[in-house]
Design brief:
about 75% helix, 9 helices, mainly alpha, about 260 residues, single chain, globular
């Protein structure tokens, strides 16, 4: 969305991405702990403690050793004839390895994949990043959303009670994000226009909602109807954001790319 609106390199765009990364990191950690509790069926202090220890060790090893491994891979392949394709392959290999490592440790695969993205981010040149974005947005993202759509039972949405739940969930999703941004902006020097842009930009957080909903449905803590409600909210927040963000960005003065 930021790419399409030419806002990726603007200050507010970079701030939106930074906040989104922090939210995702906290979300994946919370998701790992909650899913572990859900599988057990009750809160097991020892189980939660074990998950936290494993999670801490995994993240610590990834942060300390991960950059060295990634740097080695890129340095070894620095003189190949197709650096873009090689860089793309490294991203895929590191992503699958980290996701597999997460699963092997009893954590969620998305946590490992997320950490892999953080590790390789600074080693991608513009062309490799462009190719990766094209493949992701053109192939993986549509497949992901199509898979999420296959699990949705729309017949459960067309009841008064379900529509009321969907409306309340949508209101909480939108207002909760906006309130968090406004409260955080109080302690910064963000202008009102920048605060509005940030609040609107963070409203489009549908991908993580779909991942959480799919996991909840798979392990049985969400019903098909509630899953359909979450998917509907994710779609609505994602669709409503671009026109609002385009309008909000028009009120911002041109700034130096971050």
């Amino acid at each position: 969305m930021l790419i399409d609106l030419d806002a990726m390199d603007r200050t507010v765009g970079q701030l939106t991405l930074t906040v989104a990364v922090v939210i995702d990191a906290a979300g994946w950690i919370a998701l790992t702990i909650v899913s572990d509790i859900a599988r057990v069926g009750q809160i097991d202090p020892l189980g939660v403690g074990r998950t936290l220890v494993v999670l801490g060790v995994f993240v610590g090893v990834a942060v300390i050793l991960g950059p060295r491994v990634v740097d080695t891979l890129f340095n070894v392949t620095a003189y190949v004839r197709s650096p873009v394709l090689t860089g793309f392959s490294i991203v895929i290999v590191v992503g699958l390895a980290m996701a597999g490592g997460s699963l092997a440790l009893g954590l969620e695969a998305v946590l490992g994949a997320f950490l892999a993205g953080v590790l390789v981010r600074n080693r991608l040149d513009a062309e490799t990043e462009r190719v990766f974005q094209m493949v992701t947005l053109g192939l993986f993202a549509p497949v992901f959303f199509a898979t999420a759509g296959l699990r949705v039972d729309l017949t459960g949405l067309f009841t008064l009670d379900t529509l009321l739940v969907a409306g309340a969930t949508l209101a909480v999703a939108v207002l909760g994000k906006a309130l968090g941004v406004v409260l955080g902006a109080v302690f910064t020097d963000l202008s009102r226009a920048e605060t509005v842009c940030l609040a609107i930009g963070l409203n489009a957080r549908g991908a993580m909602e779909l991942v959480v909903a799919a996991l909840g449905l798979a392990i049985g803590i969400l019903t098909p109807t509630i899953y359909a409600v979450i998917v509907l909210v994710a779609i609505v927040t994602s669709v409503m954001t671009p026109p609002l963000l385009r309008r909000a960005l028009s009120h911002l003065p041109d700034d130096v790319p971050a």
